[in-house]
Amino acid sequence: MASPIRVAVSGQPNCGKSTMFNAITGGSARVGNYPGITVDRLEGSYHAGGTDIRLVDLPGTYSLTSYSMEELVARNVILDEHPDVVINMIDATALERSLYLAVQFMEIGAPMVLGLNMMDEVRRNGVTLDVAKLGKLLGVPVVPCVARVGQGREALMAAVVETYKQTGGVWKPIRLSYGPELDPVIARMTEVIEEAGFLTDRRDPRWVAIKYLESDEQVMTEGRAAAATVADRLEAICREAEAHTRQHSAATPDAVIADWRYGFIQGVLRQGIVTGGDELRRTFSDSLDRIVTHKILGPVIMLSVLWLMFQVTFSLGAYPQGWVEAGFAWLAELGTATIPEGNLQSLVVSGIIGGVGAVMGFTPLICIMFAMLVFLEDLGYMARVAYMMDRVLRIFGLHGMSVMPLIMSGGIPGGCAVPGVMSARTLRSPKERLATILTAPFMVCGAKTTAYLMLVAAFFPENPTQAMFFVVLSAWGFVLIVSRLLRWTVVKGESTPFVMEIPPYRLPTFRGVVDHTLERVWQYVKKAGTVILAVSILMWAVMTYPKLPEDTVAGFEAQRQEVTAKVAADNPAASEAELAELTKEAAKGVDDDQNEAALLHSVGGRISQFVRPVTDLAGFPWQANVALLGAFAAKEVFVSTMATAYSMGEVDPEDPESLSQRLAADPAWSLPAILSVFAFMLLYTPCMVTVVAIAKETNWKWATFSVFGSMTFAFVVAVAIYQIAGLFA
Amino acid sequence: MTMSLRRMGVNQEGCIKAVTASGEMGRRIRDMGLVPGTRIMLVGRAPLADPVALRMRGFTLSLRNSEADYITVEAL
Predict the structure, then answer these.
(1) Chain B interface, mutation test: which of A104, A210, A280, most B Cβ atoms within 10 Å?
(2) For the purposes of burial, counting CB atoms within 10 Å of the CB of A378, is it exposed (0-12), middle (13-18) or buried (19 or more)?
């Protein structure tokens, strides 16, 4: 069999590229990552008439400069992997802008097939396109498509096979004119490049010349590494050219090049390709936006949508979440029943099943949340939210698109930072995205909510609502302030230009939403099986070992015997079953004491004792120390560890009332200490699942920064609060 | 009448005269098709009057006022 045809699918954002990719590859698409960065790499295959076609989906970009990760990836796949054919999907409703990218691919020289998508919308707008003529003028096959319904898929692939046969894999860059000012310069530079054999092993000489004039960072760095003297010469010519264009047309060479590219496209389209329509006509979407982004109605609608999303996620998600939890509870019971009591049982039941179960319990929430997020994103609503919120968030060094991750993470209490951090992918500006990811975990996620509910019930029983509201407001305040601080320091830099397309509203396809959602959820589940499993085991070990010395255990055992004997003596008439029940009841106190002693004796307990000289500055009671340590695994653990520390035995995190009473009675919890723990709880290290998500969305360097940075910041704030509040107490 | 894009009113039409932004911002503005000669119409402003939404070349684009400052328009 002949070797497969290698095809890259390219296109601008919102052009329906992914929809077409999925339509072509069916269920065969596989997600991966480009090495070292978080841009997804989608691959799939297609078979027809005995030909095997391998496709790779390039990230959606408007251009092929080297400013963003996506653009670099798209370009480098073409340059380095040298695909046989490039499919370029075109949003036919914005033909000129879409062709701008296509022309840049043609400048590189890759054999191309144009997929003219959204032809149904074009017709609805009363526009007719002369597809055949467009193909003839551009010199590439053009296939009209409606990707949403899979129309044009076969024709597109047939064109790919035909193009492959005709070109035989030979690349032929088109030669555009960039005007009388630059054309001679480009010719001169091309000569220099050809003579010196500068980068010519992999690049077209004329293309390199153009990139130099566009002062393309990547090519210039590459050039400098290859031959510094030639690079010097080229850069000198560029400076000369820039002086010239600045003087004659008050523009830089890259601006002139862009003008001529658009000029070329316009020249082609003016030859009777487009008839009818008005490019400035308000579309249905624009009319709808008069309401959706209206001064007053806009924010009201936005808040309602966010609130509704939240309600749906957490009310609907509670059912499957309950099932998953029940499933793990059943597994835990099975483990208890089948594995003999001892270390192995404890490891499997408490460590592995408990730890992974806590994480998997979030899967249904993530599923629902992502499904809605993908829906709103594909619909085009998220672009409107960014548009409305940008002015406010910019003050704090964030971006309009930061709203969603912040809300998801618990901007309305009960969210979860894991999907929150993941949803920050929609941000196209790297600095704002990083600041969002690092601060989003401050929000009051569902797990923190349980802890706060317990603490609030203990210390502010008169006005719990106000207390909770205050906590949430503080979270927002800290997020915005810390973002501002980060953007002034470690994530310093100009805000990324907001220049953003507001795509028309388009009803997403069911398939698209499902595919996207499952993809994300699967990545999350995979993590739960690896890193989180390891950390769960570690946390379990820290809270379990070393075990109490044998004589201490024997002491508790003796107490238990005593209790048993006493119960038997007090109830001479009871049956054996009743007696067992009563004994269990009576021995609970002893069990709880033993649990508390074991916790204090463990590494975790010792660490919390050891750090007391430090944490005393913030006024933490020792029980809070160990609970906060345990809460790194998952913030819900705060409640259960507090329960163990206050020797309460098993406490249901959903109903921690009795624990609240114990806390309220403990004099160690003075008002300054309470406030200090409240603040620390809000700000300290994100839970391990979030840390893993951060690492995945950025890298381990930033995840580590998040761990220690948050810890330090939280501690400083807690100490400040404790010390200052102490002055007034 | 030439003016900065920032000064345009909603529903006003214009034609781009010059784009003076350079570097990344200039590149992004031009990539979207905001080059001299392009016809635009300002279709809306966000609730806090910034960013603005433009209709041009068959699609809708939004940009901040600080970016609009670099764009000179001949109002029609």
Answers:
(1) A280
(2) buried
Q: Does residue A146 sit in the same domain as residue A183?
A: no
Given a contact cutoff of 8 angstroms between Cβ atoms, the answer to whether A73 and A83 are in contact is no
Closest alpha carbon to A156 in A54, A45, A4, A20: A20
Nearest to A252 among B22, B31, B38 (CB): B22
A14 annotated among ligand-binding-site residues? yes
Strand B39-45 to strand B52-56: parallel, antiparallel, or no bridges (unpaired)? antiparallel
CATH number of the CATH domain containing A34: 3.40.50.300
Indicate the residue among A221, A243, A275 that finishes a domain.
A275
pLDDT digit string, tens, across residues A189-232: 999 999 998 888 888 899 999 999 998 888 999 999 999 999 99
Question: What is this structure's pTM?
Answer: 0.80
Whether residues A14 and A144 fall in one domain: yes
* The pLDDT value given to residue A654: 53
Q: Does the distance separating the beta carbons of B33 and A259 come in below 8 Å?
A: no
Predicted confidence (pLDDT) per residue in A261-302, tens digit: 999 999 999 999 998 878 777 788 888 999 999 999 999 998
Length of chain A: 729
Does the distance separating the beta carbons of B48 and A391 come in below 8 Å? yes
- For residue A469, the model assigns a pLDDT of 81
Rounded to a whole number of angstroms, the CA Rg of chain B reads 11
Query: Which residues have a Cβ under 8 Å from the Cβ of A652 and sit 6 or more positions away?
Result: none
- Do the domain assignments include residue A494? no
Name the minimum distance, in Å, from the CA of B33 to any CA of chain A: 6
Residue A121 belongs to some domain of the structure: yes
> Helix, strand, or coil here: A353?
helix
Which chain A residue is nearest to residue B48, measuring alpha carbons?
A391
Q: Let me know whether A147 and A62 are in one domain.
A: yes
ipTM surpassing 0.90: yes
* Structural domain includes residue A339: no
Partner-chain residue, chosen from B22, B32, B57, that has the shortest CB–CB distance to A499 = B32
Output the pLDDT for position A382. 81
Residues of chain A positioned with their CB less than 8 A from the CB of B59 = 91, 93-94, 97, 501, 503-504
Q: What is the CATH number of the domain that holds A263?
A: 1.10.287.1770
Low-confidence ranges of chain A (pLDDT < 50): 1, 36
CA distance B74 to chain A (A): 16
**Quick check: A524 contacting B, CB < 8 Å?**
no
A210 and A158 both lie in a single domain = no
Domain membership of residue A148 as a residue range? 5-167
Size of interface A-B (CB pairs under 8 A): 141
Establish whether A157 is an annotated binding residue.
Answer: no
Q: Is A616 annotated as a binding residue?
A: no
Q: Are A99 and A270 in contact (CB under 8 A)?
A: no
- Measured CA to CA, the distance from residue A303 to residue B37 in angstroms comes to 40
Supply the pLDDT for residue A157.
Answer: 94
**Per the structure, how many domains does chain A have?**
2
**Does A512 appear as a known binding residue?**
no
Do A81 and A210 have their domain in common? Answer: no
* Within-domain flag for A399: no
pLDDT at A359: 64
Domains defined along chain B, listed by start: 2-75 (2.30.30.90)
